[in-house]
Amino acid sequence: MYVRKRKGRWDSKMADKKLDSGSDDGSDEGVVGNVNKFAVVPPGYTGRPKKGHLIFDACFECGNLGRVDYITEYEYDLFIRPDTCNPRFRVWFNFTVENVKADQRIIFNIVNFSKTKSLYREGMSPLVKSSTRPRWQRIPAKNVYYYRCPDHRKNYVLSFAFAFDREDDVYQFSYCYPYSYTKLQTYLDTIEKRDLDYYTRELLCLSVQQRRLDLLTITSPENLDPDTAKKVIFVTARVHPGETPASFVCQGVIDFLVSNHPIAKVLREHIVFKIIPMLNPDGVYLGNYRCSLMGFDLNRHWQEPSPWAHPTLHATKQLLMELDSDPKIDLDFYIDLHAHSTLMNGFMYGNVYDDMDRYERQAIFPKLLCANADDFSMGNTSFNRDAVKAGTARRFLGGILDESSHCYTLEVSFFCYTTTTTSAILPYTEESYMKLGRNLAKTFLDYYKLTSLITPKPAASINMQQVRDKIQRRREWVNARRSSTNMRRSSRPHASDSSEGAREDP
After folding, report:
1. How far is CA 53 from CA 41, 82, 224, 482, in A?
2. Is 460's pLDDT higher than 60?
3. Is residue 81 within 8 Å of residue 32, measured between CB atoms?
4. Rounded to whole angstroms, how far apart are CA atoms 203 and 206?
5. Catalytic site residue 411?
6. Has residue 306 got a pLDDT over 80?
7. Which of the listed residues 100, 333, 337, 467 has the most CB atoms within 10 Å of its CB?
8. Is 2 in contact with 21 (CB distance < 8 Å)?
9. pTM score above 0.70
10. Catalytic residue among 243, 360, 411, 476
11. How far apart are CA 244 and CA 285, in angstroms?
C-alpha cells in the first residue's frame, strides 16, 4: 500500500522515517536512510503509480540512495545518503529503478557529491545492468556530465541521460562494481570447501554489528611449525568500504595463491601469506563510502584503535604487533589495498625514511611490479610523510615495524588505465582488477629471487612424420568426398528440355 508524500513522491514502507528533509533548497539535511520501493509521481497526481512512474530502491546490501526529487517527467534529482554517523562523505551510490516504460528517456542528476575532483571529469561514467542483462556496462561518456551547479550550493553534480528499453526489467546503477560482504563470505566458503592443506581461514574478531573479520593464511603446511623461521607478507583490503576495486584486486591475489600455478606453488613453499580481505565489513554492508558504522574513517585510527569502537582495526593491529615481535618471523611486507577517485592506473604510496638505504630498498618492489603489470604506473607512485596521513596503516606501521619491513598502500583507479604501448584509455573491469592482484602476487617471486625454482614446461616435440601422415589422410578424405559427390550427380537423370543441365562441382 502506497502512502502519499510531499513534492510528488510516493513511498512503500520507508526504511527511515527521517528520509524527507522538509527542505526545498536542494540540501541533503536529514538524508539518513535509504529509499525503499520509493515511487516518484508528478505533483498533484493521486492514485497508484502508473507505468513510467519510476520506483527507486536502495534498501539492499551495499545500497545507497537517500532521496529522490521529481523535477519533470524526464528529470529527477537524486541525493546520495551520507555515510552513517558522518555527513562529510557522499560519493558511493548503488540503487535500482523499476516500473519503467519501454523507450522511456530520463535524466538523473546526482546533486550532493562531497568531492570536487573526480574521474568523471576524465570520462568515467556510472555503471548499469538490468535483470535480463546482468553484466555491468558503463553508460556512454557522451551522455554524462560533471559540473558545479549554483542551484545546489555550488556542489558538483553528476548528470547522465539514460533510455530504459525493457518494461519488465529492474535496472541497477552504481558508482563502481559492487563487492559485498555476502559476496566475500560466499567466495571464502567456496575455497574452504576445497579442503586445501595450504589454506586456513580463521575468525580474527567480530565487527560492531557482529560480522566476521576473516584472516586467511596461505602457505605450505610445514611453514606453520612455530619453531620454523618464516617470511610473512600481510595484505589487507576494504578499510574504506566504497573502494570496491580493492576487493577484486584482493580476490585476484587469493585466487592466484591457492591455484596450481607453478609460481603459486613456489611462493607457498617459501612465504607465509596473511590476508584480511575486508577490514570494514559493517561499512561495506551499509553502503558507506569511507566510514564504519559509527562514522569513523578507520584508516586514521591505527595509532590507538579502540576495542569497542574499532574492533577490527584493534584485532588486526594486535596480530601485526605479535608477528613483528616474534623472533622466528620476518614481517617483510604490509600492503593495504585501496581505490583512487582522481588518478588512473595502479600505483603505490610508500614512506620516506631518514635512512637512505631503507628508503632506496623500498623503491625496489614497485619497480618490479611495474615490470609485471601493464596497468601499474611508476609515474603516479610516490613516497611521502604527509602529516594528514599520520594515522594511516602505511604511515603508522612504517614507523613502528622492524626497519626491514616494507609498508605500502596499493591504489588502483576507480576508472581506467593506460599502458606504455598505447595512449588509449582502457576502462577497468572486474577481471582486469583481479589481474592486477595476480600480478601483485607474482611479483614476490622476482623480489625473493625464486625464479630459478620454476621448472619450465618442456617444449612440445613435433613428429614430422605424424604431421605428413595427417596431411595425407586429409587429402585422401577430400578426394574421396569429391569423387562421391561427382558420382551422385552424374547418376541423376538429365532434363532433356532444360537449358540449365547438371552443374559440375566447382
Report:
1. 6, 26, 60, 65
2. no
3. yes
4. 8
5. yes
6. yes
7. 337
8. no
9. yes
10. 411
11. 12
